Each structure stands twice: as structure tokens, then as C-alpha cells.
Amino acid sequence: MDDKVKKIITPEKCEIFAKNCSERGREDLALQAKERAVQLRAEAYGAETQAEREALEAVYAYEEVLSTKNGKKTRAGRTWQMISRHGIIGAVERAVNRPTETQGYTSLVEMGLEDYAFENVILRYPDLFSEQAVSISRERMEQWQSS
Predict the structure, then answer these.
(1) Which of 17, 64, 108, 130 would staple 113 via disulfide (CB 3.0–4.6 Å)?
(2) Are 107 and 65 in contact (CB under 8 A)?
(3) Are both 106 and 79 inside the same structural domain?
(4) Are residues 76 and 92 in the same domain?
(5) Same-domain status, 40 and 99
(6) Does one domain contain both 41 and 55?
(7) Separation of alpha carbons 129 and 106, rounded Å
(8) Cα–Cα distance between 69 and 76 in angstroms, integer?
(9) Residues 87 and 26 in one domain
(10) 121 touches 55 (CB < 8 A)
(11) What's the CA gap between 63 and 67, in Å, rounded?
């Protein structure tokens, strides 16, 4: 990550920096600023473990995708409701175990944020999730990487 981006201390300043970079044709720095905003938001939420922090980063990355797509700040409302009810790890498990794949993977890829997919979080911390969630995640990642 560029030193200029590392020094940014609020998500709001990251958004301004990203917008300015995009206007100047520096999409590489804009992407780094968006990633930094995601990291700062996850840190502020108060995750207790690295896995929880990465799962929260996935939610905030998805919100970046939604906001870009909608042209205005958009929250992942249903996801936050699941987090409130089941905790972050439980919410990720439930989202991936749905019969249809989690929304937004294609959009995450388009924005260069595919590492933030719930499936990737599960594969990085398989011992925290059910065998079914790990299996589904592995299958989806193989499918997505081959297409």
C-alpha cells in the first residue's frame, strides 16, 4: 500500500482521496484508498479476532460495491441484521450456506476486491466454520476462478 494511503486515518478521508485519485486517472491509488477505508471501518467495529476483522472487512467491501453501484452510500442492511442476531462468524456461515451464492462476488471482482468475499474468509479460517460452509466456499471459488 502506498505511504500516502497508509497515513489516512479516517474512512471519510479515504473516500475523498479515492475520488480525487479517480478523477486524476490513478485508479491504483483509488483502489488502495477504498481498501484502507474498509480496513479502518472494520477496526472501528471492534472485532475480537483476525477472522472477525476480515469478515467485517468483507461486509464493508460489499457496502463499497453497493455504494458504487447505486451512486450513493448504501448499507448491507440484511447482513447487519444477521450479524446482530448471530455474530459476525455466524452471519458469514449462514450467508454462504444459502442455496444461492452470496451476492456481490462479481461486483467485488470488478472493483478489484475479490479477496473480501465471504468464501475467501471461510477458506482462510476453515476451523471456525462448518465442513459444509468450507466445502461450499471451496466449490464456489473453484467455479469463479475457472470462469
Answers:
(1) 108
(2) yes
(3) yes
(4) yes
(5) no
(6) no
(7) 23
(8) 13
(9) no
(10) yes
(11) 6
Q: How far apart are the C-alpha atoms of 36 and 85, rounded to whole Å?
A: 27
Q: Tell me how many domains the chain contains.
A: 2
State the maximum Cα–Cα separation within the chain, in Å, rounded to a whole number.
Answer: 46
Find the DSSP H helices in the chain. 3-6, 11-23, 27-45, 50-70, 77-96, 105-110, 118-124, 131-146
Rounded Cα distance between 45 and 111, Å, is 23
Give the integer Cα–Cα distance in Å for 68 and 97. Answer: 26
Q: Is the dihedral of CA 62, 64, 68, 70 positive or negative?
A: positive
pLDDT for 142 equals 86
Per the structure, the complete domain to which residue 15 belongs is given by 1-45
Clarify whether residues 39 and 63 are in a common domain.
Answer: no
pLDDT at res. 100: 67
